[in-house]
Amino acid sequence: MTKCSHLPAPPHPAPRADGCEEATGGWWVHLRVCLHCGHVGCCDSSPSRHATKHFRAADHPVVQSLEPGETWGWCYIESKELGPFPALR
Ligand SMILES: [Zn+2]
Ligand SMILES: [Zn+2]
Ligand SMILES: [Zn+2]
């Protein structure tokens, strides 16, 4: 298990949406869930990059992939892969 000092203590909040909660009529490639508050946003391959915007706006640096079967996380501050975490889907 790779951790970092920014990773909040478990239990982590459940994803609070099924899709990017800030995409208004937009689309996305992949989803990331904020492990600090459960915010669901789209990845940096998506046009709006809402997960990265949420990190900057809320100062919540650690996300986990919300893609089926994926167990990796990411710290935006260190650009470092974390995990493995239990898959969320
Ligand atoms: Zn970190
Ligand atoms: Zn958050
Ligand atoms: Zn989005």
What's the short version?
The chain is built from one helix and five strands.
Task: Write a structural description.
The protein has 89 residues and is of the alpha+beta class. It contains 1 helix and 5 strands; from the N terminus they run ββαβββ. The protein has one helix at 50-58; strands spanning 31-34, 40-42, 62-65, 73-75, 80-82. The chain has a 5-stranded antiparallel β-sheet with strand order 2-1-3-4-5, with helices on one face. The longest helix has 9 residues, at 50-58. The structure holds zinc ion (3 copies). Residues 4-6, 61, 75, 77-78 line the site of one zinc ion (ZN). One zinc ion (ZN) is lined by residues 34, 36-37, 39, 54, 58, 60.
Provide the descriptors you would attach to this structure in a database record:
89 residues; alpha+beta; 5-stranded antiparallel β-sheet; 5 strands; 10% helix; binds zinc ion
Strand order of the largest sheet: 2-1-3-4-5
User: In DSSP terms, counting alpha (H) and pi (I) runs of 4 or more, how many helices?
Assistant: 1
Inertia-based shape: globular
Quick one: how many beta strands? 5
Q: What is the strand content?
A: 15-25%
Structural class: alpha+beta
Low-confidence stretches: none
End-to-end C-alpha gap = 19 Å
Radius of gyration, rounded? 12 Å
Helix content: 10-25%
Mean pLDDT: 96
- SSE order, one letter for each helix or strand: EEHEEE
Q: Which ligands occur here?
A: zinc ion
